[in-house]
Amino acid sequence: MNMQTAVQTVLGKYATFTGRAARPEYWWWILATVILLTILGLIDGTVLAPMMGYASFDPVAPDPLSGIASLLLLLPNMAVAVRRLHDTDRSGWWLLLSLIPIIGSLVLLYFLVQRGTEGSNRFG
To answer: What's the pLDDT tens digit per position in 93-107?
Structure first.
């Protein structure tokens, strides 16, 4: 699987919380999201901030493009993370671990990098 296939798959399953997502699908999606938000953040900081009367990359300047993109990608990010947890034979409710500062995110990261279960499991 490559980045383009992963992005097409995740966006095609925009709000699908059932099924499974393999490691490459999840991590290619994360990389594409990081690249997109970085580019939009650069545009916000270099082009839009001065147009709104702020200095370039002023910390108090609004980031409209990256903010809108983050909101639009929230649901597919959650859905692919839940499907990734399903691939490791875990419930999607484990995603709530991310609400626990530092430790919860580290445990969730450990779950997300693990190899998926071979064959079928209770999620597909």
So the answer is: 999 999 999 999 999
Q: What is the pTM of this model?
A: 0.92
CB 94 within 8 A of CB 108: yes
> Is-contact 57 48, C-beta < 8 A?
no
Exposed (0-12), middle (13-18) or buried (19+): which is 110, by Cβ within 10 Å?
exposed
| Residue at 50: amino acid letter | P
The tokens for 21 are: 């997502």
Nearest alpha-carbon partner for 111 in 36, 124, 119, 93: 93
Reported as a single tens digit per residue, the pLDDT across 19-34 is: 999 999 999 999 999 9
Give the gyration radius of the chain's Cα atoms.
Answer: 17
Question: How far apart are the C-alpha atoms of 63 and 59, rounded to whole Å?
Answer: 10
